[in-house]
Design brief:
2 domains; two-stranded antiparallel sheet; Alkaline Phosphatase, subunit A; elongated; alpha/beta
Length: 513
């Protein structure tokens, strides 16, 4: 092996071009000047480098080292681009290793077609970093990460891309500069395997083994879709691979179109008869899915200084009460929304799935579509950010005529840092009072007041409920929030008890805290 430095005039021209590119980045993002200088020196030295490999065993060893080392580097650069130091430290070593293997599979597949290790490294690294860059901007714009199911809406994303400002932070600039140096370096190393067939067989065999190992090691690992959990729990590349796996759903045992048709015929007649008997005036339908609203007495007796939900407990007349079963615990509210609105069950989907972000591409049959078919105006209300769980995209797809998110509320009644149930219910009343004559109205509302966590203290919240016999500050805060929800529920029901039009109110919690 021979390594030489050849200082040629063409390298100076390349350096000038590279420095102009780096200077533009420097202008956009104020990173240290020494980084700019270090990039210039490194780039010039790399472009002046000449490497000759005469020994075939040395070429083989270097080729293997380049493929393996590049996979490690690319996987870590993806994590560096997407996460700050604190979040990067959260990922476990075994998950990071699986991310490296995912990158290695890409390198091996590309190697089969290029048969040139240097070219393989260039193509694979650029492809994977471009992929990570897409996720970088997707998270920046919508607050959660890019997964496989998002490919179905890529045309929509491209159509509105011009409305966003593409901004790089310092980590992104460092990744770009390092990638330029890496590509310049590997292009200097020319490694080709003489026996192409054997090379292809070996690459494919190793790739298949890696895929099998990844599949075995990720059994029970769920795809994370909330904010950046996918990157710091699974690693972004692995999390994306898991999202591909989740798109393949097996039919339940005994499922067939014939069975569904039989069930439809069995129950559809009774429904039509009921509708025909009560067709004179359709009721206004109001659904309140209350955030983290739960009866903790189902897990044990809890003694408190005063009754937590006295109004709800007192309700007996003209109502049906009971316990609702939830498929989620402590999080993933949209799955409860989906189960309620469609009548489908999370039992038939992969563990950890979030329907809104993975499976809704067309308008599903739901309470929304059914009510729209008989003339209802369907309204969705959620006093929080529209991008949460992709509701801003899902609600129109579900068929809602109107959507109301945090910016549509006055935000004058806050408890801790969330809009209260009281303000949500006042907005429901306001929408009801503004409905047109003969307008049939369906409102699906999802509250935010009681959202976890429950440990931080807030000056705008006087916790009224305390547990007796034990001191649990988080339980005190949670139960005090339920107490406030109870007061707001009394306002909502009392108001609609006073109106002349028929109104049906459905109230339930999405999950336990």
């Amino acid at each position: 092996m021979k390594i030489r430095l050849n200082f040629e005039k063409t390298n100076l021209i390349r350096l000038i071009v590279a420095m102009i590119f780096a200077a533009v980045l420097y202008y956009k993002v104020a990173f240290p000047v020494y980084v700019l200088a270090g990039f210039g020196v490194s780039y010039f030295l790399i472009k002046s480098l000449s490497v000759e490999l005469n020994n075939k065993w040395l070429r083989l060893a270097l080729g293997i080292l380049m493929l393996g080392g590049s996979s490690v580097m690319t996987a870590h650069m993806v994590q560096y681009l997407l996460l700050d130091a604190e979040l990067r430290a959260r990922i476990m070593d075994n998950k990071m290793f699986l991310n490296v293997l995912c990158c290695l599979v890409v390198y091996l597949v590309v190697q089969v077609f290029t048969k040139n290790v240097g070219l393989t490294c260039v193509i694979s690294h650029i492809a994977l970093m471009t992929f990570a860059g897409i996720n970088y901007f997707v998270y920046l714009f919508r607050g959660n990460e890019f997964i496989f199911s998002d490919l179905r809406s890529i045309s929509t994303g491209l159509s509105v891309a011009g409305n966003y400002e593409f901004v790089l932070d310092d980590r992104a600039v460092y990744v770009v500069l390092l990638s330029v140096l890496y590509v310049a370096f590997v292009r200097k190393i020319h490694v080709k395997f003489e026996k192409r067939l054997w090379m292809a067989v070996v690459c494919i065999s190793i790739a298949v083994f890696c895929c099998a190992y990844i599949g075995t090691e990720t059994e029970g690992t769920v795809t994370e879709t909330w904010e950046q959990k996918g990157s710091y729990r699974n690693g972004y590349i692995l999390n994306y691979v898991l999202s591909i796996r989740d798109c393949f759903i097996a039919e339940p045992d005994g499922y067939s179109e014939e069975v569904v048709t039989e069930l439809e015929n069995q129950y559809s007649g009774d429904g039509e008869s009921y509708v025909n008997q009560n067709i004179e005036k359709k009721p206004t339908i109001i659904v309140v899915m209350s955030e983290s609203y739960a009866d903790l007495s189902v897990v044990g007796d809890i003694l408190t200084n005063e009754q937590v939900t006295p109004y709800y407990d007192s309700l007996k007349d003209n109502m049906i009460k009971g316990h609702a079963l939830s498929s989620v615990f402590g999080a993933k509210t949209p799955n409860s929304e989906w189960e309620f609105m469609t009548g489908n069950s999370m039992a038939f989907l992969p563990s950890g799935s979030v329907v809104y972000q993975q499976y809704i591409s067309d308008t599903p049959t739901s309470i929304v579509s059914n009510l729209k078919n008989i003339g209802y105006t369907c309204v969705a209300m959620h006093p929080y950010y529209e991008t949460g769980w992709s509701r801003n995209a899902v609600y129109p797809t579900m068929g809602f005529d109107e959507t109301h998110f945090i910016d549509d509320f006055d935000q004058t009644k806050l408890l801790r840092k969330y809009i209260t149930d009281q303000e949500l219910y006042e907005s429901i009343v306001e929408r009801y009072e503004s409905k047109k004559a003969n307008e049939d109205l369906f409102i699906m509302s999802i509250s935010m007041q009681n959202h976890g966590g429950y440990t931080e203290k807030y000056p705008n919240f006087n916790e009224q409920i305390r547990t007796l016999g034990a001191s649990y500050s988080d339980a005190n805060q949670y139960l005090s929030l339920l107490h406030e929800s109870d007061k707001a529920l009394e306002y909502l029901i009392s108001y609609f008890q006073s109106v002349d039009d028929p109104v049906e109110i459905v109230f339930f919690g999405d999950h336990q805290p």
